[in-house]
Amino acid sequence: MDRYPDPDVTELAGVLDRRLEALLIDGLLVVGLVGLLGYVGGALMIEGSFGGFGGFLVAVQFISPVVLLGYQTAFEGYYGQTLGKRYRDIVVVTEDGNDCTWVAAVARNLLRIVDALPAFYLVGVLVAYLSDEHQRLGDLAAGTRVVYVDE
C-alpha cells in the first residue's frame, strides 16, 4: 500500500457513492474480523458453540465500533485512506489539498459518532449534502475533505 496516494483535489467524492461504499467495506472487514475473534474467544472460554456465539455477539456489539474508529483513524492518519477508501479510489486530504494529519484524522473520526446519529449516518449525510464540498461534521471540524485519487 502506497504511503499516501496522489489526490485529485479538483474532484470531490460524493456523499452517498464511493464514501458510503468505502464505509460499508471497512465495516464488514472490522465486524468480520472482530466477530471471528469474539467467536473463537467465547468458544475457548465457555467451551462450546453457544459460548462462541455469545462471544461473537458481545464482540460485534461492543468491541467492533471501537475497533472501527481506531482502524479508520490509524489508516487515515498514516495512509490518508482506509482499505475501503483505497478500493474505491478516494483519499482524505486537508482543505488546502495536503496530506491528512494525525490530529485531523483523530478529530474527523471522533466526530463520526455524532455524524452517525440518530441512525444510519443521518446527521453526517444531511450536513454533507448542505456543505459545498460534501463535508460531514467531522470533516468540517478537522478541516478535511474526501477527494478522488489521481489516476
Structure description:
With 151 residues, this protein is mainly α. The protein is 61% helix and 11% strand. The chain has seven helices and three strands, in the order βαααβααααβ. The protein has a three-stranded antiparallel β-sheet with strand order 1-3-2. Helix 1 (18-46) packs antiparallel against helix 2 (49-78) and helix 2 crosses helix 4 (102-110). The longest helix is centred in the middle third of the chain and has 30 residues, at 49-78. The protein is elongated.
Task: Tell me briefly what this model is.
With 151 residues, the protein is mainly α. 61% of the residues lie in helices and 11% in strands.
* Beta content: 5-15%
Average pLDDT rating: 91
Query: How do the helices and strands follow one another from N- to C-terminus?
Result: EHHHEHHHHE
Q: Estimate the global geometry from the Cα principal axes.
A: elongated
What descriptive keywords fit this protein?
elongated; single chain; 11% strand; mainly alpha; 151 residues; three-stranded antiparallel sheet
Walk me through the topology.
Blueprint: E1 7-12, H1 18-46, H2 49-78, H3 83-87, E2 90-94, H4 102-110, H5 112-115, H6 122-130, H7 137-142, E3 144-149
Antiparallel strand pairs: 1-3, 2-3
Helix pairs in contact: 1-2, 2-4
